[in-house]
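Q: A reviewer asked whether we had any structural model of the full assembly, not just the individual parts. We don't, so I'm hoping you can provide one. Inputs are below.
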Amino acid sequence: MTAREASAPTGPTFRARFGRALPYVLLAPGLLWLIVFYVVPAVQMFTYSISKGTLETGYEMTLTADAYATALDRFGKQFLNSILYGGAATILTLAIGFPVAYTIAFRGGRYKNLILFLVIAPFFTSFLIRTISWKILLGDEGPLLAPLRHGFGLIDANIPLLGHAGVIDGQFSILNTPISQVAGLTYNFLPFMILPLYVALEKIDIRLIEAAEDLYANRAAAFRRVTLPLALPGVFAGSLLTFIPAMGDYINAELLGNPGTRMIGNVIQNRLLLQNDYPVGSALSFILMAGILVAVAIYARLLGTEQLTG
Amino acid sequence: MATESERPIADLTRRRFLQGTAMAGFATFLAACTGTKTGTSAAPSAESSAGALPSAAPSAAPSPTPEPTPKVATGPLKFANWPAYIDLGDADEFTPGASPSLNEFEKKYKIKVDYQEKIGDNATFVETIKPALVGGLPTGWDLVVLTDWMAAKIVANGWAEKIDQENVPNCTANLRDALKNSSWDGLNDYHYPWQSGMTGVGFNAKTLKANNIAEPTKVADLWNIPPGKVTFLSEARDTFGLVLLKLGVNADGATVTPEQLQQASDSIQPLVDGGLRFTGNEYLQDFAQKKVWAAFVWSGDLASSGGPDDKFIFPEEGTLIWTDNMLIPKGAANKYSAELMMDYVYDAKVAALIADYVFYVSPVKGADEEIKKIDPEAATNPLLFPPADVVAKQHSFQALSDANEKILNDLYSKLSGT
Amino acid sequence: MADATTLPQTGAPAATSSRRSGGFWQRFQPRILPIFTTLAIVYLMIPIAVMIVFSFNKPDGKFNYIWSQFSLDGWAHPFDWPGLGDAVTTSLAVAVLSTIIATILGTMMGLALTRYSFRGRGALNGIIFLPMATPEIVLGASLLTLFVATALPPLAGSVPTLYPTGFQTILIAHVMFNISYVVVTVKARLAGFDRRLEEAAMDLGANEITTFWRVTFPLIFPGIMAAALLAFSLSIDDFVITNFVSGTTNTFPIWVYSIQRNALPVQINVIGSIIFLGAVALVGLTTLRSGRAARIR
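A: Here is a predicted structure for the entire assembly that you could use as a starting point for your response.
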């Protein structure tokens, strides 16, 4: 797709005026920003991962892979948690997000922008406020669990103490379990899935789908053979925007999980902030990034959207 | 120092830059060679971070002749403290969250105070100022409050400004004797305590009763509560200290052995498997939501910020005592103002105002009498005035050897899943 | 809440339909998607509803966790905590500026990447992609080290000094992490863009600049808007990176984070509600105007 566009003829005057410089002119400011404020610090972090020492005593670059060995050896479980919970959240957001994006794109009508805005609206409040809200809702004596615990008709969180007449016992919790953690991840990354899906779906010509429905005389087949392939770039982008930050997330695990559900982001945070162990912390980061890149490459191949990542 | 190592700069610069070695450490190294901006002396911080050269050991050599602080009160005084760690006025009279004692200070010295509740835990806060400290740059803060072990590290690295004792007559006169001669800054060259507190056990009486569990009287009782309803502290020293007491081990930071730390960890592990969590100050939220039934907590918090059913007890095995200390970070722009603040809060009247609000133990002599004057009820409050039997069982688990600290951090990190 | 909104919709066709179940299914089927979407939106709105409801609470203690009684106190004194007003101002300023800068830079990059072939595309895509794959905490820690290094020799003097950290460094960091998100979103819109539309415009005599503004830009505008919305929301919500690069400056999330350990004042909910409602109003206005523009076109 891209190759065709790239070689597509552009107007001669256009060429003449800007020549081959145009793409570079367009790229330069953003690229410069990323090089100075991302690449340079990242290279520096990489040197930490093959060094020994602490910030106070200075680092001595030893070119050893010790930190990488430690990272892989000791934190396998947390890597697994990241993949598991990040993956679960991605699948859930896709399952919820696709129908929503589809509806906005094709049925939204004049409410399109409004719905789109509502999708992203949670992010105009602080994640802390959202998490606090969820803690209120899912809390042991919150409006969801209190009735189940104490029998219906009693939802006043102030009076949790009339025994356990309900269907769950005194100990049952949702908060600080894998369920609440995946739920938190799903909630927080849902808009990251819906937006790119919408962007991809919105530009599909509805007549194409109508024609396909006539052709296959079967909505499911039309969807599978026309809509879905055209939406793939959006599925791809959305999954990446969800899976990647979900893998590296540590806030959800910290606020909604427990020590058994910690993910690799928590370890990185702990290494950098508490243990003052930059070598292992940055080694973990680079393993995570490498893992993500490999996953993305495989995923791109499976979906046939290599051109999107270049 | 500057002259003798001037020559290699050019070579070192380029090579190190190409190697991409830790930029801050590198820049610091150069700062060490060329002299730092703050320049009161060759900053000890610089010496220690020149440890990119392997042999250089961190040294805490205090500057022999501190430059006298110019006695000009400048501002705004940037003061970083822990949340809810100062008196707050009534909503009618003051803006919510505004402190009468800080207002008074501003009026008295005509200095604006930018007081921020920015310190959630020692390590995270220090990590945000550490690159500046290592590089010998001002941190932006004039006064920070850190717990003993972290304060000791700051002082040992030479990251604190030396206090001009002439400017703090109240401090020198009113510091409680028990808090003098600390192992890490015996002459109070760099710090004065802000508040002391104890680590013990807190619980919600109502929830426990509803679930037919007896109220805990000792640390060991927490093992009889469903672990999913218990939290320990993410300050590893507090958690391990109390568990050591439960195991019958003397929780003294100086004498603890690696084996004992391991035993404590083994004792906590089953709880973690059952759903135990580790929290900082935010256990207050869990209490507010009845999410936690019992927890390791700091002494003043539940009294000042908890609900009516939230109780604090001194466990039978003993409590841990610690002190949070005021320090002036190296390169502070308003050092004299910071010293004025230190001196001001060591006025017994002001100290009484603060302690009576935060429910911690004031380090100031004479504050007791003032507290009793303004709040007769507080006179019997064991949080403010720990009774003799409690004091007898106080342990300090702050001063760990570097090796033990490493083991402690490692054990804690395994327990907490990170 | 979910029941209240959806029941009438599901119930209505069944009641009015006199046909058998097959007929009901036929009538019901087209409504599955709207119902599902409504439910999803409700799900997304629940925490906001809680936030707004609790902004009218008068909590018993310091924590605004449990409903006590209705009160307008919070709304009467929304900024009544020291530092809260400044924090909100900083947050809004950073969000607006970083969104504008990142959207412009990111859209330019998106255009260049989808339309031109040139050397180093692969590497470039990598550079754009990697910031999203880097854990926030690593971005924060490494940026802080960089900012500090600009004030130290040998960089000091030769480059603009970015230390002490504060507003400018927060802005730089936010633009940095926003650019990638903008590029990805805009690229998704540009992929499969029908170039023949532009060619047609040029055949009709429009020059490149006119073509861009009259044809290309309107067509990719939804993508740019989506990217800008995403950037704004990422920026106004960021805590982890900001915490490292903010120095003594506070943004709203940082202020909330530091105070929420020991108190949860109603004002947090009030400010949260104001930001939310303000954004709703703004988008509502834009929607109205663009709707009118669309009709005119």
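A: Points you may want to mention in the reply: DSSP finds 15 helices and two strands in chain A. Chain A touches chain B through 48 residues (CB under 8 Å).
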